[in-house]
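Can't attach files on this board, so I'm pasting raw text. These are the components:
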Amino acid sequence: MIRMKEKLYKWIFTVLAFSSLVFLIGIVLVLFKESLPIFSQVSIGKFVFGKSWYPTYSPAEFGILPLILASAWVTFGAALVCVPLGVGSALYLNELAGPKQKAILKPLVELLASIPSVVFGFFGIVIVTPFLQKFFHLPTGLTAFNASLILGIMATPTVCSIAEDALNYVPKQFREASFALGADRWQTLTRVVIPAAGSGISTAIILGMSRAIGETMTVLMVAGGAAVIPHTFLEPVRPMTAAIAAEMGEAPMGSSHYHALFAIALILFLITFIFNIIAEIISRRFRVKLGLSG
Amino acid sequence: MRKKHIQNIGFAGLFSCMFITLFALGLIIFFIGVRGVRVISWEFLTQIPRNGMTQGGVAPAIIGTLYITLGAIIFSLPLGLACAIYLCEYSPKGFIVNIIRISINNLAGVPSVVFGLFGLAVFVKFFGFGISILSGSLTLGILALPLIISASQEALLAVPQSIREASLSLGATKWETIKRIVLPAALPGILTGVILSIGRIAGETAPILFTAAAFYMRGYPKSIFSEVMALPYHIYALMTEGVHPDRQKMIAYGCSFILLFIVLFISGIAIFIRQRQRTQHA
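---
Top answer:
Structure tokens for the assembled complex are below.
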């Protein structure tokens, strides 16, 4: 009787576990299924490297290079903000803040990481946009620069939190050995601690950028939305996520436009997937290097 | 002497990084707090919108957010927890579990708009649930699934193997050990993960754009198959649609204030619990 019950429970958990996996695998399958039809119309090369995105014209043109470049610019800009701020803050927390200060600041940073993206977008529209417009004398404040700035600030707590965890893993003996050799705190930090935690910090940066490239609401609200190849940071752009969110509502189901938007989502998925795999590999090596469990 | 200078400049740099980060994020909370709190009134929290979104309250959006979030958790919590229990306690260790773990980690990093498209293709279209609370909840539930699985898994793995063995050696069966020993010990960690996911999905906008959200509804949703207003979507719509941008902006300040309050409150609880555990263990 007891044995029957035990077997039953095992089966229930197995079934539930695999059904949640079915959902997760389903995402990949659906993305492929819904995006493949577009490639019978446009070749993959023309889709990815095509310079004009006019999905509603006739004949429609499905070239997503402007969208990819917009995502790349905005993410690069965000990295310029969140890498120094995030890593710098992590070093501050780990090295300079006392235990009491850290016990307040670390949870605070984690709390700030939970601010919803739509709130960042709203702040971008009502406060940052008018400011940038006046400051740079622009026709519109909704630009790649604005989106980069907001996304960067948004990703900073994530980068800081993960980088600080990595710094925590550096064994105390590394520091003590360096001090014993006569190095001061700054030398120990820059020549011993940072190199030792280097791959952990890179994981933090990659995950932060992966968050920035997939972020939707902020760029939808503040990037300006023009689907043209950007030449400067002060022009409106339309990143991939913004294109999907803005156009899906109007694209008739089953139309080429609909399938093209799914194809953009597929490419986005693959990009973030690669980012995350790289982060996973690097962090695994990091743990092995420091003699933690592989 | 020069060495000392470099160190001081470097440390000042690190301090300013921390300062700028907190200042920038504090600025956002400050602006929305100060301007949003002026809009908040009993009427704003309990009435439906009137006069083309320029007067009245946002009660349907608040209620809608609660419905969708609750629905998502009802769906994802049992599934996610079961998946974590299977992976930690039942599954044979090795290659397959590793692959599953890595793919779950990766799904936690998939952009939220991609989940929205999945919900559109599967729940709205394929299953025919339409744009509804049900579709939105299921979509957000799938987004929460990897978060809940990895948090629960971490909490279960933190339970020492020796307690399990002690329980088994006293004659308890595997399920009794899990139910009476492992789950109670892992509960605080699981709870933290679940609460954090609630905070996350309550503020998500992109997944409900095409699966659940409506800009305006007369009154409240009647069943799980009706469209629904939701706070995060409402903020976006107020800023991009409608005909009275200036007055809508004030309503949007109010909505942002409420959303920020809800999310920071929920996440705050989880982070507080986690922080207490950390200090206890240390």
